[in-house]
Amino acid sequence: MSWVSRPTKPFGKVLLSFLFLGLFAGSILAQEQPKKFLLLKRGSNQKSQVRFYPGEDITYKSKKIGYFVTDKIVNLDTEYLYLTENILSPSDILEIDIRRKDPRNRTLTNLTNLSLGAGTMAIALEGINSLYQQRKLQFSPGLIKTSAILLGTGFGLLPVRYKTFTLSEKNRIQLVILEIE
């Protein structure tokens, strides 16, 4: 049995070919497409702005439909929002559901979880500690008050969320197309 050896390309030529291909592909990919998004603007504060990009789901209520509909943004231009099931003008939109999109809701959710978790953990650890040391379930009055305050704060924060963005004088909807030259 004989092994036939085939001539191979030197490693340097292969590496040089990949580098050249990478530079060529990089210059093609560097030509960015224009950024398009639906901007929900509440006042001038940038923290209260919410953006929806093509490919994202949006839940909205329009003048034509009196209930909330969830649809995917396909494209947008300066006047219309193209969805998979509908074409909308920003003036046709009455409300947009922003529960999952608004970054302030993440902060409120984290505060809620922190308060509920701390209150529950304090009660649980005090109970386990008392069972281990004294062989009976016993809680100190200060810990009960602290846990009750933490749990009450957590449950009080549960309903506090930014739910919908309603079109008004202060709240505006804009279709934004940024072209990079």
How does this model look, in words?
This protein has helices at residues 11-29, 103-134, 141-157, and strands spanning 35-42, 50-52, 57-62, 69-76, 81-83, 87-88, 93-97, 164-166, 171-178. It is an alpha+beta fold. A hairpin with a 4-residue loop joins strand 4 and strand 5. The longest helix is centred in the middle third of the chain and has 32 residues, at 103-134. 9% of the residues are buried.
Sheet with the most strands, sense and barrel status? 6 strands, antiparallel
Secondary structural class: alpha+beta
The average pLDDT score comes to 81
The SSE string, one letter per element, is: HEEEEEEEHHEE
User: Quick one: how many beta strands?
Assistant: 9
Percentage of β-strand residues: 25-35%
Broad shape: flat
Major β-sheet strand ordering:
6-5-4-3-7-8
Helix content class: 25-40%
Distance between the termini: 63 Å
- Put simply, the count of helices is 3
Report the uncertain regions.
none
Number of domains: 2
**What Rg, in angstroms, do the CA atoms define?**
29 Å
